User: What shape does this take?
Amino acid sequence: MAFSSPSYSKRNTVEKCLPRLSESVFIGLCNILGTAELVTMRRDVADFYEMIKNEANKKEFIMMISGSFKEGFRLLGSDRDFMYWPVNHQVIWDVSLFHEKCMQHLSESVFMGLCTIVGTSEQVTMRRDVLDMHELLNNLENINYISRMVSGSYREGFRLKISDVDMMYWSNHNRVIWDLGQSKFYEKYKLNLIVSDSSESPPGFTLLWLPFMNNLEKVCKVMKNRFYISSSKYKQSIQPSFKGFTEITSGMHGPCIASSAFAGVVDMDEAHCFASDFWPPSASSWIHRCTSWPGPHLVAEIVRKGCHFVAIGHSLGIHEDIEWRISFSLAETQLVYAMNHCQFLTYGLLKLFLKDVINNGVSSEEKLLCSYHMKTAVFWAIQQNKLLKWCPQNLLECFWVCFKLILKWVYEGVCPNFFIPENNMFLTKIHSDSQLILFLRLYTLYENGCVSCLLHYPFIRARVLNVLYNPGCSICTDEHTLISEVMFDELLFREINLIVLYSKKSNLRPVEMLETNVNKQKYIIDKISCNMLKLVAKFGCISDALYLAMYYYKTSRYTEALSIIEMTKVKLSQPYVIHLLQIGGRQKYMYSEAVGGKNWSIKMRDALGMHVILFDNICYFKEILIEQVDKRKRKSLIVPPFILIHMLELLCYRKVDTQKVQTALNDLRILVHFSLFENIFFSDISWQILGVCQYMTGDFKAAFYSYQQSLRQFPMQHLQTSTIIRIIILIYKVIHLQK
Assistant: This one.
């Protein structure tokens, strides 16, 4: 009988017991260290604690629990390890990575800053759409006479303080062709055809001659048996048939008439030119160059719309006094419209940089670069740099590419026109010593680097420094966070004010015919005028109803006028109604509560009160005829709606209920005296109207005081002459009564 060895038997017993021993030890360790569920809970609690602490101190430092405690152990003698590091400090392995990240943050910060200065993409689009609609309405009325186009920065969507309004006018009876073969596309007896001849002119300029005699002969110069239209004579003979809102003309500015509008607040340049429906042969290379930007459809549309000719010759040309410059304003506007918002803001940044850095502290004679050069640089940069990413994270690099291109042009003394590269736009101004001085100024900025250049601009400097001091901060590039609904609506209403004014001006003109026509015609015109003004009151803003009230007053329908006035007063008194130029914080909140989210037509009809424009070529009521006749420096009066309401009330009550006249006068006096509608635009006319009303009620002393107050106000509406006339009339009236 065989027996196993004792050692073998012992080993076998241990092997059999080992799993049970392991299970026993596992249970024991679970009791000491914790079960899986308990360890997971400890870790989750530690993670949650970290999150709470870091959320509370996210601007200063980040905390992390480490070691045994974070891992889930809770043994006696185990300490707790905490790690802290500041938010704004990072260790990197490659310096270039930090520079790239920092430049991205700087670009994003500058992008958002420019959105507040120049406008968000939504704001810019709104401005363009409103202006396009305004232009369309204007040209529809004048389709057989004069066409008008807003060009330049204002048309492109800028509303900077440095932006003036450029206007172009051309007769629809004249058309320029490039050869006589193109005359077959026109009915010669309806149009005056003009032929362009650029064979003897520098690139970008041309001569215009008449193949058939017409009314332009008087501004022509005979040369080589042809009648060439003289640009210098044409400018001298200009008598604009449509001036828009122009009020003050201050002389010539290149090919333009320099003027101002809206009480001298807006500077305007009006260019009277000729139009062509054909693309210039000298710019044909541009069509073939556009392989990536702009796209083929836009190129075709630009070519289809042709070009214009403005009255200025090349100063180095042999025919300067009869030369005309080829203008691509319409094409440039379409190209700017085709830019994405980063490209547009780069263009805006260059304009601001030109004004506040390059031309800062420089005399007018030394300001050799202009905004048009900046725009040309952006056009070339977009077209030639196909790998350049035009996005918020890359805005500074895009700006720097354009700046270096301008620096290169100044160094070479050549700035090629985007459409006709042979046209060097530096040829007449930037050369010799002036070229060297300008290059040294730009090169100094270039040596300092992109970021240092922008530190010269105050608003951008604040954003740049904020990123440099907090390099770890993330930048939100969502434009919608910059402007609220009520702010956007306010800006929209300001823009569409032009269209509303245009509609009112057209609809009120038939009123002037009521006094001169026979009864049947008078009835027809009255019905048409009344219906048109009712439409304006229905679809316009609240205060537009006052035009209908004025019409009723003028046509002796005083009860109807008072009904409209009372309804308008109630609507304007609602707490959510916003008045342009005067919007408070609580008013904005209540506006959002009342009409937030509704379409713009409802907002405009129910919650917008605007100042009332009284054009000087329309007699609304004879009581303010003296103020309207004095039109040497303006073409309209701007009256606050509540001022006009109380005046109309007083005028109507004088006809139907004299007992209420004094109440209306007291309401007007309180409104003016206690400045319930404070604004420098309205103070002089408000005191003037109060004085007129006091004079009508026989309170001559109070009227004299009001006229004096009107003279003391800022002369925004140029009422000084009419006020003096009012005072003289008052004095004669008092003297006559004393006799």
Remarks:
- The radius of gyration is 37 Å.
- Confidence is low (pLDDT under 50) at residues 92-98, 240-245, 502-511.
- Residues 530 and 578 are 27 Å apart (CA to CA).
- Residues 135-338 form a domain with the Beta Polymerase; domain 2 fold (CATH 3.30.460).
